[in-house]
Design a protein that fits this description.
elongated, Creatine Amidinohydrolase, Creatine Amidinohydrolase, Chain A, domain 1, 2 domains, alpha+beta
Length: 378
């Protein structure tokens, strides 16, 4: 018989949490029989909690299975492979499908014990792509928390004063990326979410899309804030980006912000069931080029323009299928995706705006409620 098998910790394995709805920091075993019966095998430390909360048919104590194996086969070594193979034999399972991330050492051990192990390429649970109404509600809740963190950071920047040196100040103290990030992250934690490399990147630092930002924040230049926490209770992620300027934005920054804003509107108008993600991405790229913002490397080899995808799936992982990018993928009803065009140049810094939408039959619905604005006043 065949089955699906995962061995991982559900804090880091979205596939395992999706199957069990059980958070645990240490690896445990999940088996789904072809008949549909599911099993979770975990340590004595977690077994009672798993019995109360895990969405599986049967929960087993790893130590009890060890003792059963030891009693029947006292001379055989006891390790993850022998105990797993022993349990699979009890279920009359000789072939398992596993995720591509399955531990190599355990796979080799199972094969040595006559269990056929077949790693699956692509999604282990393809149905994860299509979000249920409950999942969409969980993502909306994550975005609400994300928005509160975002606004805490923006309001701190808004409350700053502009120094004669062109930097931002709170009282007599320079306002830095670290201070704003701390304010955002503290808000997220209070709301029950885990911050994850929150980006507060000012001025020329913003020309690198994933630069977290450091040091004093400049006035009259773009500041990118990208906030993407994971809600501790549900495991779902939020993701949101805004670009603001304390003071008066340079002409190029304002033009770039307007172009990115219009690029988002192109995506919102085109996203619907059956639409090509590549077509959307290509149209936005062409529009930005027409507005005077070409994409490509400069003489020093630095990338400039719009050189990342328009969006990605969001759910139990911060980046999951599908993509809206140069790789063609078809959007389907129930997909939840980000829409985040951006422009980046070494002499300007960066501009990015990001909302999250759910794909519907005849369009899309924006789940992000935080407004978009550039200048925070002079």
């Amino acid at each position: 018989m065949t089955a699906r098998l995962i061995y991982a910790d559900s804090e880091s394995s979205a596939d395992l949490y999706y199957a069990t709805r059980f958070f645990a920091p240490d690896p445990f075993l999940y088996i789904a029989e072809a008949s549909g019966t599911s099993h979770l095998i975990t340590s004595s430390l977690e077994v009672d909690r798993a019995k109360r909360t895990a969405k599986v048919d049967q929960v087993h104590d790893w130590e009890q299975i060890r003792q059963q194996h030891k009693k029947l086969f006292p001379e055989e070594p006891l390790n993850e492979a022998t105990i797993t193979a022993f349990f699979l034999t009890k279920l009359e399972i000789d072939t398992v499908a596993v995720p591509a991330t399955f531990p190599v050492s355990l796979a080799d051990g199972l094969r040595a014990l006559a269990v056929t192990v077949n790693p699956l390429s692509g999604s282990f649970w393809p149905q994860r792509e299509i979000k249920t109404p409950d999942e969409i509600t969980a993502i909306e809740a994550a975005l609400t928390i994300t928005g509160r963190g975002m606004m805490a950071g923006i309001e701190l920047i808004r409350s700053s004063t502009i120094g004669k040196d062109g930097l931002l100040y709170i009282g007599d103290k320079q306002l830095s990326s670290e201070i704003v990030r701390g304010e955002i992250n503290a808000t997220l934690v209070r709301e029950g979410a885990q911050p994850n490399h929150t980006i507060v990147s000012g001025g020329k630092q913003g020309s690198d899309p994933h630069e977290e930002g450091s040091g004093p924040l400049p006035a009259n230049q773009a500041i990118i804030l990208d906030v993407f926490p994971r809600v501790e209770k549900t495991g779902y992620w939020g993701d949101m980006t805004r670009t603001v300027c304390r003071g008066k934005a340079p002409k190029k920054v304002k033009a770039a912000w307007d172009a990115v804003y219009e690029g988002q509107k192109i995506a919102f108008a085109k996203i619907k069931d059956g639409m090509s993600g590549k077509e959307i991405h290509d149209e936005i790229t062409a529009y930005l080029t027409q507005q005077g913002f070409p994409t490509g490397a400069d003489e020093q080899g630095r990338q400039g323009g719009f050189f990342h995808g328009t969006g990605h799936g969001l759910g139990l992982e911060i980046h999951e299928a599908p993509r809206i990018s140069s790789k063609d993928q078809t959007l389907k009803t129930g997909h939840v995706v980000t829409v985040e065009p951006g422009l980046y140049y070494p002499d300007m810094g960066g501009v990015r705006l990001e909302d999250v939408v759910v794909v519907e039959k005849n369009g899309c619905r924006n789940l992000t409620k935080i407004p978009k604005f550039l200048e925070l006043g002079e």
